[in-house]
Amino acid sequence: MHGNCILEDGPRPGRPSITHTVENVELVLDEVTKDPHVTYAQLEHETKLSSGSINVILHKELGLRKLCARWIPHSLSSDQKKCRVDFCKIMLKRFVNGTSRAVSEILTGDETWIYHYDLETKRHSKEWVEEGGLPPTKVRRIRSVESRCG
User: DSSP letter at 80?
Assistant: First the structure.
């Protein structure tokens, strides 16, 4: 049993990896911090690194993943939420939790608003998020005064 008992890595043939340096990791992190929506192509252009190196830096070194934003129909302020709860409590008292006949005397109406906007796809809302992080949220309502007759 005469062999090499050294447990450290020896020199290996081939080109050394110079892309996973601390400077390159910081460079990619700076770009992602500036713009969480940045794409691989933009990172390649800004950092002059290959897409494979960027992939390793983003996923293995920084532990990031790109997630689509979770769209929500609207965003209410805390005052608006409180007003809605207060109104519901008043209605529950007024109509005795639904047992009063006065409930049948409520008249309701409906309005339809049709907004014109350029649809943003879910892909446009993707952001780099830390591993285990929650996806960002985005209010879906985008209004415009433009009208079109077709």
Answer: H
